[in-house]
Amino acid sequence: MSAPDRDDDALQIGARRFRSRLLTGTGKFRDLQQTLQATEAAGSEIVTFAVRRMNIGQDASQPSLLDVLPPQRYTLLPNTAGCYDAGEAVRTCLLARELLDGHPLVKLEVLGDARTLFPNVTETLKAAEQLVHEGFEVMVYTSDDPIIARQLEAIGCAAVMPLAAPIGSGLGIQNRYTLLEIIENAQVPVIVDAGVGTASDAAIAMELGCDGVLMNTAIAGARDPLLMARAMRAAVQAGRDAFRAGRIPRRRHASASSPVDGTIG
Known about the structure:
The protein is of the alpha/beta class.
């Protein structure tokens, strides 16, 4: 049997197809040049940024993210980081669409409080409904609640993005069983957003069957961000390959690699 063909294993979000399943952020890097270098090392095609924190043309006197990550080369994913209610998030997405010449793809996040950065799911549902009605393609940061994930998909979100642990915590995949419940019932991509700390965390997420992983702090906060970006790239691909290959069952006892049945003498 031939190995799985990576070219036929595209990540599909709406009408778009992507070879890379590693999505990266733009915050916390030393400068825009390091942001570009890390993005390239990660092999990311989808790059997210906070509309309220990153200059994409709002201030003509300052360097713009678009100068280093042009929309012709990357799929930019404006996000609503820092928003705490639905109205604020919707206005932020409308601003991003205006600044990016009608670009419809957005990452919705409506936070519940500044300490945990957990999503406010009530406001998230409200904002998602409004944005889908406005014609946006919504990738949505949410809790790991399978019921909420189904509701967001029913609203028309293009991808659901449950946290694996609190944003920036680096705690790794703390909720694999609820993630599995979401994955097994979803008809849209499921992308882990938040909690990844190192390459093994990314591999575990992909081995579970997640369609992708989004990260920022795990790369930008590493001692060597570019090396970590390369490690994350390899881990996401390895985890995806392992998921597609199908792992062996877990057993309590040994199973010999070289069985003795039928041996000579």
